[in-house]
Amino acid sequence: MRTIGEVAHLLGISTHTLRYYEKEKIMIPDRDERGDRRYSDSHIQWLRFVIKLKETQMPISKIKKYASLFLEGEHTASARLSLLEDHKHYIEQQIKTLIDVDGMLERKIVGYKDYISNRAAKAQVD
After folding, report:
1. CA–CA separation, 93 and 101 (whole Å)
2. Which of 87, 94, 45 has its CA nearest to residue 66?
3. Cβ count within 10 A of residue 91
4. 3-state class (DSSP) for residue 82
């Protein structure tokens, strides 16, 4: 079991973020006899998943919904599946957009490099 500070350091997030996730019922850590938060390996695995969902622009409201459904039990498996499939579709759309933008940027960069190179070559001739 790890402390809140250890988990924050391990995951590269703030203790404030961990407290926020607890307040929003996204993550419920265990407590020791003094009431201090304690995080197990399964908590850390869940937090890594939550962080990836956030990094891929899943709104906190949807992460909360997923966590709530999970806590409700196995009968919510279809709803959880649907939520994840929707997010996967969103990510696939983002990947397509990023690939398109990458191609556009590559063409612009090549164009500028050619322009600058041609200008430099012309300046040497003059």
Report:
1. 12
2. 87
3. 13
4. helix
